[in-house]
Amino acid sequence: MDGKQVKIESTMQHGTDPERSKNISGTTEYTQRHLLDVDTFSKSDPVVVLFIQGIGSKEWREYGRTEVIENTLNPDFVRKFVLDYFFEEKQNLRFDVYNVDSRSTNISKHVSLEINF
């Protein structure tokens, strides 16, 4: 992983979906170390975007974003993602990290800080 460290922590509790008896609700936290420094005069301004892939679909949809932390290569994000997890169902999650250089909310306007697992 080239010296990069990623920490994803989840805590679980009983689920909130009455239609599915085998679900739990989870809180997911994301921490990153040794991000790429893509800014010229300062350090990167990272944000994590969580995408969820629909069941039986190849389409990814944005679920949520962390806060932007300015000028750091070692962010500890405060925002947590709350998700329902369903047993016996494959649920694909993707965490993308971007460097925010403008006020645009359009994620394609920002530089990806690619992480290879």
Automatic annotation (TrEMBL):
Residues 6-117 form the C2 domain. CDD domains: C2A_Copine. One of its GO terms (molecular function) is calcium-dependent phospholipid binding. Gene3D superfamilies: C2 domain. GO terms for cellular component: plasma membrane. Transmembrane segments: none annotated. GO terms for biological process: cellular response to calcium ion. It comes from the Eukaryota. Pfam families: C2. Residues 1-27 are annotated as: Disordered. InterPro entries: C2_dom, C2_domain_sf, Copine. This is C2 domain-containing protein. It comes from Scyliorhinus torazame.
